[in-house]
Automatic annotation (TrEMBL):
SUPFAM superfamilies: Periplasmic binding protein-like II. Residues 33-321 form the ABC-type glycine betaine transport system substrate-binding domain. This is ABC transporter substrate-binding protein. It comes from the Bacteria. GO terms for cellular component: ATP-binding cassette (ABC) transporter complex.
Amino acid sequence: MSISKLKLTLAATGLVLAASTGNASASYCGDGKTVTFAGIDWESGAFITEVMKTILAKGYDCQVDSIPGNSVTLEQATANNDVQIFAEEWLGRSDIWNKAVEEKKVVAVGKTFVGASEGWFVPEYVIKGDASRNIEAKAPDLKSVSQLTDAKIVELFADPEEPSKGRFLNCPSGWTCEGVSTAKLDAYKLGETYVNFRPGTGTALDSAITSAYLQGEPILFYYWSPTAIMGKFKLVQLEEPAYNEACWKELSSATGKRDEGCAFPSVDVSYGVNSTFAQEAPEIIAILEKATFPLEDVNGSLAYMTDKKVDAVAAAAEFLKTKGDVWGKWVSDEARGKIEASLK
């Protein structure tokens, strides 16, 4: 081989090696790009966002940020790629998100948590009692909303202001769940025997539940998970007829029929991600695909926030310090070591 051909061959080989090395080391964060999260303002979303921000920042040297706003604004920002990750997207519940999915501007990645639910609840001690607090089981056979018509059950949940009726503690007026639960009261033929009590705010709802629970009193109420209340108290969800689309359509419409009631639809919660970002950052998508939070840990972390009066940043740090067996499976060994070192 001539000297000139040898030089050309070596030069070509060098270019190939340089290109392959560049591709191997290239990454979204390695290129200096910022990963912007939706600054979700509800507790579970804020907590999960802070955990994932810390994992990317401390484990993978990413520049991370978050921008505040309401869910509709932040979903639109995700569609526009002003936000890359919306950490707790309740799929199918938002017209903005559904439209962005149809336009292929966003994708759902992984499962943020599994098993979230909403429905009608009673404290466990109503059914099982609580020997540690000398509370007897007042309704040991209570399992279903169909039993709420029983006169003894109505009396058990007596309304303080109208003791001849029971009290159902609904959502605050203006919340979507308030309208649905009001429709269910009629569908289950409970409208005449229960007072439909609507607290003024979410805080008032939580306060009413907490007060009754700490005093060991019977209470019937709407609630959902993940929440601090679910993490702090032992509650039992009452059974309802299975969800079906036709029933739900009527219940969720202000002018719908009230001929039958059914359970709330199942909940799918994922990381809402901008489609362009998903293509540019496969290494981050791989983490999100694994990052499923156990629901009990989310509830527990929210209860920690409430009990300790700390914010989502502090709760995220506590989770990362104490739940390495959970999040450690989402990341590389090198990243786990860096994250753990940052927490000391």
